[in-house]
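The freezer alarm interrupted the setup, so I double-checked each line after restarting. Inputs confirmed:
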Amino acid sequence: MPTGNGQLHRNQSYNRVVISGAGIVTSMGLGWENSTDGFRAGTQAFRDITLFDTSRQRVHQAGQVMLPDHLPSTRLKKRQLARIDRASQLLIHVTAEALKQSSWSADDLGEDIAISLGSSAGAMFCGEKFTQSAIEQPNHRVGQASRIHLYQTQHQARTLEDAFGIQGLVNIISNACASGANAIGHAFRLLKYGLHQKAIAGGYDALSQLVFAGFDSLQALTTTLPPRPFDANRDGLALGEGAAVLVLETLDSARQRNADILAEICGYGTATDIHHLAQPHPEGDAALSSMKSACHEAQLNPQDIQYINSHGTGTPKNDIAEGRAIQRWAGAHCNQVCVSSTKASIGHLLGGAGAVETVISLMALQGQWLPPTTTIHTPDPVCTFDLVRESRDARLDAVLSNSFGFGGANATLILKKFA
Amino acid sequence: MSSLSTKQQILISGVGAVSPAGWSADELVTATLANKILPHQELTREGCEHSCKIRRVPKPQQKQSFARHPRLRRASAISRYVAAAGLEALGDTRATAVTEEKLRLGIIVVFATGCVTYTRRFFEEMLDDPSLASPILFPETVFNAPASHLSAILGSTGTSYTLLADSAGFLSGLQLARDWLLTDQCDGCLVIGAEETDWLISEAVHLFSREAILAEGAGALYLEKSESPASSTSPKAQLCQLTPPLLYTNRQDKKSAAAKMRDLLEINPSQEKQTLLVDGLQGVRASDQIEAGTWQDWQGRRLSPRRLVGDALGASVAWQCVNAVTLLDNSYHDCCSAIVSGIGLNQQSQAAIFSSHY
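Predicted 3D structure, all chains:
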C-alpha cells in the first residue's frame, strides 16, 4: 500500500521495517563478500594517503579506499560520468550492490522511494579545489562553476537518482559523525509510520585534506597506527573513507515480493549532548539516553542485546564516555554484553561511519560472529563489558550500533534477526 | 507514542528572522511591505578584479542576552543568526519550558552552504601550513555546529537534524517537522533556514549571475500540532499543504518540476484573489526565468522579498515563509491563505500553503 508523498494514512498501525539489501565499501574492500573475512578477523586496512599531500602533517596514513577503475553500469550520461566526484563513486558502488542484493525490479525503482543520506563533508574534495583556485588564482574562473556545482551535497543525491532511475523524497542529513546512523534511522521512521514503503538509506564520506588537517589540528589523530579503541594507552583515531547503503522496506512490501530478508531494524534513538561542541559529557549522558531510547522503541532490554558495535573512536574522551554509558545502560548485565570497535580496522569514516558500522553489525548478525578489535594491548579500566579482542562465533539475536558526532549528535540503531 | 491522526492541524505559532533588514521578523516584513530595495555593498578582495554585491546583516541595535552564551563567543555569524531567529520564533515562555524539560523540542536547521566563513579561514590556514591550522576554527566548520549551539543555549537534548539542500530545502524541513509532530516525536519543532556571506560564496554565486546579490541571515518557524496540551492559544497560521519535493533529474528538468509543483497546489482560480503568493523572484533575469514562467498567470496578490533583501540561499525560502505567515496573521488585504513558492536552484521545487483558518 504505497502511501506516497509523505501523506499520513489514518488508522494505520506501525509497520515492521526490514533490510533486503546492503552495500559497503571501505578500505577493507568493495562489497560484502570482499569485506567479511577482514572484519571477521579484525584485520587492519590502513595505507599511505595518495589523494592529497600529507608531507607537512603529523600523520600520513588512513583507511583510503582502493576504488576500481570502472563504475557499475548505470543510467548516468557520459557528461555526468566524465566529471563524477569520489564521494558519488563511493555511493554508486554501494547502492548498486544493495539494489542487486534486494532484487528490486525496475518497477520497484520507479515507485516513490525515500532516499535518506548522511554525510559530514559531502564532496569536500571539489570544494577544496574551488577554494584553492579562488585563493591562488583569484581571476582565473575556468572550471570553477563546475567545481562549486559538484561540491554541493545535493549533487551526490542527484547523481544517485540519475544513476538508478530513482524518483522520490531526498533528505541529506549532516549531523557530523552520526550522519549515517541518523539517515538510516530517519528512513526507518518514514517506513515504520507508513509515510513511505521503501527507502534507500546510508552514509558516505570521502577523504578530504581539510577534514584530515582539522582532526590533525585537534591532535585527535593517532600518531601510532593502528588506532587502539578502548586500550588504556590509546592516543587517537585514524581517519578513513567509505560508504554503505541499506535497502529498506516494510515487511508487507518484502513479503509481497517474496524478498530475502536480511534482518529487521527495530529501534532508533537520538539525543543531543550539550556538554561541549567537540567533547562528550564524561559520563556519556546523551549516549545513554540514545541507547535507552532505541531500546524503548525496539521493546528490548539490555540483556536481549548480545553485541554493541561501539562508536569507539580511540580518542581518550570518547571511549571513556561511551564506556560509562554502556556500563550505566547494561547495569548488572554489563559483563555479558560483547563490545568492539571496527574503527580499529578501517578508521573513522565520519558521515559514513554509522552506515558502514550498521552493515558490519548486519554481517555479524547474519554470520553469527563478532568482529574483534585486535589492536588492544591493555584494556581501559572502563571496559567492564566483554571486550571482543579476538574473532569468535556467537549467538546473536539483536545487535546495537552507536554513532556519536561533533555538536553532540548521538544516534543508536538496533537490528535483530528476522523472525 | 500516540497513534497517527489526520485530525491534527499543524500550526505555526512563532516566527523569527535575521536579515539585512534587521534582527527580527517584523523588520523583515516591514522591509517587504515597504517594497523598497535595500542598499547593497560591494565586496572586494586583494588581487581579485571582480567585485561582488552583497547585503549583510546590520549590527544589532541593542545587546542580545543570548550572545553572551559561552558557546557563541567564538562561533561564526551563522550560529548567531540561527540562535536569534530560533529564539525569536520559540519565544521566552516556550524557551523556558524547553530548559525545564516540560517541552520536547525538535530542531531542524537547513543550509545550502552553511558555515562557510570558518571553513574558508581554516582552509586558508591549512594551505599556508597545515601543522599550524587553528583547532579553534575547525569544529565550527562542521555543518551541525549552529544547531548544536542552539541546543546548548536552550538546554535541549532532543532530536536535532541539520539538512543540506538548495533553497527549497526549507520546505522539506517543514515536511520533516510535520512528520515528527504527527508521529509524536516531539511536542514542538523549530525549523530554521540560514546562511552567512563570505567572499568565497559570493564569488561562487557571481559565477552564475553577475547581477545576483547574495544576502545572509536566517528565518525560523515554530510548529506545533493543534491538539497538544503544549500548543499555543494564539497560533499565527496553519500549514495546510506541502507539495512533495519535485526533484530535478535527467527525467524531470527544473521547468517541468516547477510546473508540476504548481499543478499540485490545491488552489483554484476563484481562490487566487484571496490568496497571497510569496515567490522567489530576485530581480535577476537569468535566475527568475522559471519562477516567472511558473506564476505568469497568477491573478492574486504577490510579494517578492528576495528582490528587496537579496538571495540568501538556504534562508531565502525561510524568509518567504516568515513573510507569508506574518502577513496572514495581520490579515493582509483580507487574504486567507498564502502560497510560498520554493523553486530551488539545483535540487528541487516544493511549495507550501498556509492558511489563516485553523
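Quick read of the result. Residues 77-90 of chain B form the longest helix (14 residues).
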